[in-house]
Amino acid sequence: MIDDPVLTRFAPSPTGYLHLGHVVNALYVWRTARQMGGRVLLRIEDHDRVRSRPEYEAAILEDLAWLGFVPDEGLRPLVRQSDRGQLYEEALARLRSTAHVYACDCSRKRLAGEQYDGRCRARGLPEGPGRGLRVRIDPGVERFIDLRLGTLEQEPAGQSGDLLIRDRDGQWTYQFAVTVDDMRQGITHVIRGADLLDSTGRQLRLARLLGRDIAPAYLHHPLVLNPTGQKLSKSEQAAAIREMRRAGLDAHAVIGAAEAALEERRPGF
Questions:
Q1: Where are the domains of the chain?
Q2: How far is Cα 232 from Cα 240, in angstroms, rounded to an integer?
Q3: What is the mean pLDDT of residues 206-224?
Q4: Is 43 left (phi over 0), alpha (psi -120 to 50) or beta?
Q5: Is residue 227 over pLDDT 90?
Q6: Which of 30, 212, 226, 240 is 20–30 Å from 121 (CA)?
Q7: Is residue 243's pLDDT more than 70?
Q8: CATH, range 1-82+224-269
């Protein structure tokens, strides 16, 4: 049971502009927090230094303010993952003391999107440029409660294999950074889209290895889909909020469009 005051987060990545899918997530985050008497923390997840852009970050903050989504924490000063390198180094040191962390030279192309098979686990590669870092994930089931879906379980070793925590370019990975941040910032409720449901078990395992005793509660909400039935994509500039603003829609109309799209799950939104 979570006895601490409710604290959740809205955590956009500045790799594109906000679209209706982000508005749906913001609605779930703010409404759930308010219903539970909790607070919302804003976190800019710019761990991807290649694709993150200052202009996207500025647009995200502008659009959130225009829509009326005001965070309770994390805005002044703005919380960015790119400023939290020392915290991630400290977490890595803790992880080294509780689990097997090792260097890996496998590329995405070599793995071809398949589950990592541990091929570098016993190679004893020295750490350095061009090599990522992985943490060994042993077999075992992670059980958790989703506030919408009920009690679920996942097997991280079977889903992903040993987790990459720093990539070959020296960047912290999403799985590692978000787990450390949620733990260090005391996030009690993680509210996010259903596309991230499969990440839950591996993040729970990683948090346990880092020493987190009480796991957060989760809520994975439905996604807004594009005309092909896929999740809205930043790369396609899907229904960008800035474009809707330029077309003359006001904030109330944009939020209404997000609510209608979620309720009806209509392609095109």
A1: 1-82+224-269
A2: 10
A3: 94
A4: beta
A5: no
A6: 212
A7: yes
A8: 3.40.50.620
Instruction: Pinpoint the alpha helices (H) of the chain.
Output: 20-35, 54-67, 85-98, 108-111, 156-159, 174-184, 200-209, 241-246, 251-264
β-pairing verdict for 142-146 and 150-154: antiparallel
Distance from C-alpha of 117 to C-alpha of 46, rounded to nearest angstrom: 28
User: Residue 168 and residue 39: Cα distance in Å, rounded?
Assistant: 36
Q: What pLDDT shows up at residue 229?
A: 60
User: Tens digit of pLDDT for each residue in 112-154?
Assistant: 667 898 999 999 999 999 999 999 999 999 999 999 999 999 9
Q: State the DSSP H helix or E strand holding residue 166, giving kind and residue range, or none if neither.
A: strand 163-166
User: What is the b/e burial string over 115-136, where b = at least 16 CB atoms within 10 angstroms of the residue's CB?
Assistant: ebeeebeeeeeeeeeebbbbbe
Q: Is 234 a known active-site residue? A: yes
Q: How many CB atoms lie within 10 A of CB 234?
A: 18
The three-class DSSP label of residue 134 is: strand
Q: How far apart are CA 117 and CA 142, in angstroms?
A: 20
215 vs 144: CA distance, rounded Å: 8
Q: Which burial class, exposed, middle or buried, applies to 248 when counting CB atoms under 10 A from its CB (0-12, 13-18, 19+)?
A: exposed
Judge whether 189 and 165 are in contact, CB under 8 Å: no
Set 23, 223, 234, 244: catalytic member? 234
pTM: 0.91
Per-residue pLDDT, 224 = 83
| pLDDT for residue 11 is more than 90 | yes
